[in-house]
Structure to design on (294 residues):
C-alpha cells in the first residue's frame, strides 16, 4: 500500500523490494513487486504475485537460512498478509532486519509476525505518527460486525471497500466466522483461491451474499459514501489495518533493539524525527538509496 514514497533499497547488488539482478520481495502487494533474474520470496508471495506478473521466483521458507547473493539471510513472518515476510541479513559489519509491510498483532489470514534482534533496522512507516492509533484487530472486527448487522437489520445491503489482495480475504474470513455470506469481486476470488491452496478456506462466498465487497478507492471517496458503505483501511472509516499503527511500530523497534534505524514509506521523515527524540539514531531513506554495508 501507499506507493508514493517508494524507497529503492540496494545492499551490494541485492534489492530489498527493489528491482535488481538478485532481489527479495517481501509480499504480494503490487507496490512491492520487483523484477530481477532471481526474486527470493515465500511460496505464498510467489503464487499471489504470479496472478499479476511473471518472473523467476526462488521460494524460501520462514526460519531457514539461505543465501541472498553473498549474504546469509533468514525470513520472518511479517503478519501483513498471507506469505508476507521480513528479512534478516548478515552483513560484514552487523545484522540488518527489513520489515517490509508489517503488523504486530495477529490477523486471521496472515501468519503471526516475529521479529529478531538486529543491529540495523529498516522499518516501514506507513502509519508512523501517533495520530494513527488503531483498535486491536479483534475490536475492529466487533465494529465491522456491528456495522453489517445494523445495515441488514434495516433491510440494507452493506458494502465494504477493501484492498483486493489481503484485506478482502481477511474481511471474508471475519464475516465467515460471524455467519455472514459475502459477494466479492472476481479479483478477490482469484486471490482467495490462492489462500485456499495454503489452507485458508472461505465457505461463505455467494453471488447474492449479505455483504458486498468492492475494490478500495482513494480516501477522498470516503465523503461520498452512503451510511451503508464503509472503507476498511487504516485511512478509512473502519480501522482494521494490516499495517502496524504507530504503537505497534514502537513495539517492533523495542523488540529488534537496533543501533541504527532507517525508516521507509509513508511518514518516514516524521517517524525518524520521533525516534530521534526518543534517543534512537534514526533517519529516513528514500529513492535510490544504497544502504550501508560496511
Ligand atoms: Zn502491503
Amino acid at each position: 500500500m501507499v506507493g508514493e514514497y517508494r524507497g529503492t533499497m540496494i545492499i551490494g547488488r541485492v534489492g530489498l523490494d527493489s528491482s535488481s539482478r538478485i532481489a527479495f520481495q517481501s509480499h504480494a502487494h503490487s507496490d512491492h513487486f520487483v523484477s530481477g533474474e532471481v526474486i527470493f520470496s515465500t511460496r505464498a508471495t510467489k503464487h499471489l504475485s504470479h496472478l499479476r506478473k511473471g518472473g523467476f521466483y526462488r521460494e524460501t521458507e520462514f526460519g531457514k537460512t539461505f543465501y541472498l547473493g553473498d549474504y546469509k539471510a533468514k525470513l520472518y513472518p511479517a503478519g501483513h498478509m498471507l506469505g508476507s515476510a521480513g528479512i534478516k541479513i548478515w552483513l560484514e559489519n552487523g545484522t540488518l532486519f527489513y520489515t517490509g509491510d508489517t503488523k504486530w498483532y495477529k490477523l486471521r489470514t496472515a501468519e503471526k509476525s516475529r521479529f529478531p534482534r538486529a543491529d540495523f533496522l529498516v522499518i516501514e512507516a506507513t502509519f508512523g505518527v501517533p495520530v494513527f492509533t488503531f483498535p486491536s484487530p479483534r475490536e475492529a472486527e466487533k465494529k465491522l460486525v456491528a456495522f453489517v448487522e445494523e445495515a441488514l437489520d434495516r433491510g440494507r445491503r452493506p458494502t465494504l471497500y477493501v484492498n483486493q489482495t489481503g484485506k478482502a480475504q481477511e474481511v471474508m474470513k471475519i464475516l465467515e466466522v460471524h455467519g455472514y455470506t459475502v459477494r466479492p469481486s472476481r479479483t478477490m476470488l482469484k486471490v482467495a483461491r490462492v489462500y485456499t491452496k495454503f489452507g485458508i478456506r472461505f465457505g461463505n462466498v455467494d453471488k447474492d451474499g449479505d455483504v458486498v465487497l468492492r475494490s478500495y478507492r482513494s480516501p477522498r471517496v470516503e465523503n461520498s459514501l452512503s451510511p451503508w458503505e464503509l472503507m476498511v483501511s487504516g485511512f478509512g472509516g473502519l480501522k482494521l489495518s494490516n499495517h502496524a499503527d504507530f504503537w505497534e511500530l514502537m513495539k517492533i523497534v523495542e523488540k529488534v533493539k537496533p543501533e541504527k534505524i532507517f525508516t521507509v514509506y509513508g511518514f518516514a521523515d516524521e517517524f525518524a524525527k520521533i525516534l530521534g527524540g526518543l534517543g534512537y539514531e534514526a533517519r529516513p531513506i528514500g529513492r535510490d538509496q544504497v544502504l550501508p554495508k560496511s
